[in-house]
Amino acid sequence: MKEIKLNCPCCKASLIIDPETGGVIKHTKFKEAPQSLDAFIKSEKGKGAKKKEKFKEARDKEESKMDLLEKKFEWAKKNKDKLPDAPKPDIFWD
Questions:
Q1: What is the pTM of this model?
Q2: Of 32-41, 61-70, 76-85, where does mean pLDDT reach its minimum?
Q3: Sign of dihedral through CA atoms 55, 56, 61, 64?
């Protein structure tokens, strides 16, 4: 009984297969070589600018939320007679 050894064409993992059953006996993941330092530095250079842009977008979004909240508050102050009465609490705490 001899084992069949082959490499997966998709994920490049090595497989050991039992010829009688056709089942995989052992599966070893393919380990890629670590990225070179130059390639890592190139991939990290653009991330700082992306983070700044995302932070700016989040800050602008939060500022617009605050502006909207202030507009709602001013509208509510001007139109307090149009607003429904506040609900009365069910439980009175003494």
A1: 0.38
A2: 76-85
A3: positive
